Amino acid sequence: MWMTLSGIFLGWSLGANHTGNVFGTGVATGTVKYRTAIILTAIFVFLGSYLEGPKCMKTVGALSTLTPIEAFYCALAAGLMMSILTFLAFPGSASQAIIGAVLGAGVLSHTADFTKLYKIVTCWAFTPVFAIFASYSLYHILGYALERTRISMTRRNLIYSIGTLLTGCYGAYCLGSNNVANVTGVYVGSGLLDARTAALIGGISIAAGVLTYSRKVMMTIGKGIVPLDPFSALVSVLASALCLHVFTQIGVPVSSSQAIVGSVVGIGLAGDVQTVSLKMLGRIALGWVLAPTTAGILAYLFIRFDLLALLKSWHFFFLQFHGM
Amino acid sequence: MVPLKRIWKLYIVYATALLTLVAVTGFVLHGQLKYRLMNQVQEQLFTLARVLAKSLPDDLDNSAHLHSWCRDYRQVSHLRITVIQSNGRVIGDSEDEIVPEDSHLDRPEVAGALVEGSSVAVRFSITMDTDMLYAAYLVEGRQVILRLAMPMSMMKQIENEVMLFFVIAVYLAPLLAIGIPFAFGKFVLSREEPAERPPRRSRC
């Protein structure tokens, strides 16, 4: 079971970094308190993981034939990659990182299945497209509906607050259901865990990341990237959640960061305002290339040189050197 | 809030349309590739079956001789070769020395070949313990069916090699969709902006 530790680490970092996509704008604008946001996110991420998470598990594990130790190295490579990208403030995707790592392992064992990869890559390309389309449509539909109802400003603000809470909970549910496969899907493919246990462990680890280390990223996303009004913020979270939910039903884990950026671009298109900086687009493009390739190379190297055996021999050498 | 310039609006619409187009085209091409690959392999199997039919031993009652004939050709073609009588009884097999007692008339490819002269089926083989592509060919005048079988993993291997290039193309498409129109937009803006600036006053 110790082999699931790398997956737990990946889940924890995913929880810490992706919560901002769900409640970031709500917390930054003061609509939702930070403590309320993380508790709700943790609950709904766990529910999503446990109830719908197994739908995407098969996809991750089917790309290559992995042994349990290879699965451990894949999750470790993806987790390290995600941490590095987060440190460098690149919106990297855990899905791309883990798929890259699994393929890296598959190339080494000659079991990589590129026929299945095609479906996944197409879904990745469609993620921002779907999010742009969804947010553009929702912005017009919900905006029209709100304009038609003559309500006071106080009541409108109340609707926004409740809406932010509800869409945040739905977003957290969809985040858990779609992204838990990235965390523990490799263990299902290697036969170490069954889908339900993997979803349980993954859900708990993501929730732990949300509860312990999400404040900084939440504020960064809320204030730095998306300076939106409450209505636009609500629509962008709803659109990206819908996007994740649709891809969960297809059974492909996609990037929640790319979904939220896509939906924010859609808001900009609908409202005739610039919502995403050009610098941000450049970073996304770079993250798009870096996440899978680097995770793939890392996994390849970890398995090729058996990282754990290497660390053990170094430790032994260290003890010998110090006469212990 | 900064208003969105028309050129960037066009940029987003163009990039989105390009991505959609690439993904949809990719799906259609993938389907076509699988279909054509399958047809090509089936055609090759039938061509080989016709060639093998010409060299079938004269004495079809000698089962040991037929088994040996099947094994010889298996070594060359790497395919499973079975000779089946028109009543469904197996009289030669490259994989199984023991002739099965059951009738093979219930096998879809055998039943199809008896009616149409040739037929194919993809199904699980208990003997080989894997999914196989079966191509059955009725040898006219001999009243036997020559059946060639290829593991689907071989098909998958060919498909896998081609799909690698497909995947790379689709994966890089978003980068091109973002990069090329972005450079174009910047270029257009750089040409427009100097004209909007007020002219410099001369010092004298």
Describe this entry's structure for a reader.
The complex is a heterodimer of chains A (324) and B (204). Chain A has 324 residues and is an all-alpha fold. Helices cover 82% and strands 0% of the residues of chain A. Chain A has one domain (2-321). The two termini of chain A are 30 Å apart. Chain B has a domain at 58-156: PAS domain (Beta-Lactamase). Chain B contains 4 helices and 5 strands, in the order ααββαβββα. Chain B has helices at 6-54, 63-77, 108-116, 152-196, and strands spanning 80-85, 90-93, 118-125, 130-139, 144-151. In chain B, helix 1 runs antiparallel to helix 4. The longest helix of chain B is centred in the N-terminal third of the chain and has 49 residues, at 6-54. At the A-B interface, helix 7, helix 12 and helix 13 of A face helix 1 and helix 4 of B.
Q: Helical proportion of chain B?
A: 55-70%
The helix/strand series of chain A, from N terminus to C terminus, equals HHHHHHHHHHHHHH
Major beta sheet summary of chain B: 5 strands, antiparallel
Q: Gap between N and C termini of chain A, in Å? A: 30 Å
Helix content of chain A: over 70%
Q: What would the CATH topology of the domain at 58-156 in chain B be?
A: Beta-Lactamase
Secondary structure: number of strands of chain A: 0
Order of strands across the main sheet of chain B: 2-1-5-4-3
Content of β-strand of chain A: under 5%
Q: In the CATH hierarchy, what is the superfamily of the domain at 58-156 in chain B?
A: PAS domain
pLDDT < 50 runs, ≥5 residues of chain A: none
Structural class of chain B, please? alpha+beta
